[in-house]
Amino acid sequence: MASDKNGFEIPDQMRDFAEKSVDQARKAFDDFMAMTQKAVSSVEGSATAVQSGATDVNRKTLTYAEEHVDAAFRFAQQMVRAKDVEEVMSLQRDYMRKQMEALGEQTRELSATATKAAQKASDAAKD
């Protein structure tokens, strides 16, 4: 047993218990910090994956917007050169059909890109 100058003694069992308690608290804290660091890394990985996916979607969207503006200018040029109402109607019909086809394809591509981005983010969050 340990004693101090005043005659106060700490039983060995209590000292062992206190030492074990400190060791357990230290281990619990170390485990908590390890889990926290893992969670932070996971969030950072998810954020990077999300940013990458958002960049892909943004690039595609910008490309599609440019394509639509280009098509609108070509259509306007054709309309200016049209000789009669029948040609105007034909140009309008062709333009609308092509734009709807392009929109359908672009929607499918954007959906696929967004799905890939979401999957990457989900995978990054799991790691």
TrEMBL record:
Region (Disordered): 106-127
Domain annotation Phasin: ranges: 31-126
Pfam family, one: Phasin_2
Low complexity bias (residue ranges): 111-127
Protein name: Phasin
